[in-house]
Design brief:
Layout (H helix, E strand, L loop, with lengths): L3 E7 L6 E7 L4 E7 L6 E8 L5 E7 L3
Antiparallel strand pairs: 1-2, 3-4, 4-5
């Protein structure tokens, strides 16, 4: 697995499909990235399991 992996997800604000880069050096992390379409701040909750499967849960910053 590379240290950075692309993941596609839907923006929780505008619903558009966007691509984010995930840092695979940490098994669990949470960070904020702005939507490339509507510029709203998206909280990304990321987990990587023992089989290197990446789970990204996007949510609105104010929730």
């Amino acid at each position: 697995m590379n240290l950075l992996e692309e993941q596609q997800l839907s923006c929780p604000y505008c619903g558009e499909c966007i691509t984010v880069l995930i840092d695979c050096s940490l098994a669990e992390q949470s960070y904020i990235e702005d939507c490339q379409v509507c510029c709203q701040p998206i909280v990304l909750d990321v987990t990587i399991n023992d089989e290197n499967e990446i789970s990204v849960i996007p949510r609105c910053e104010n929730i």
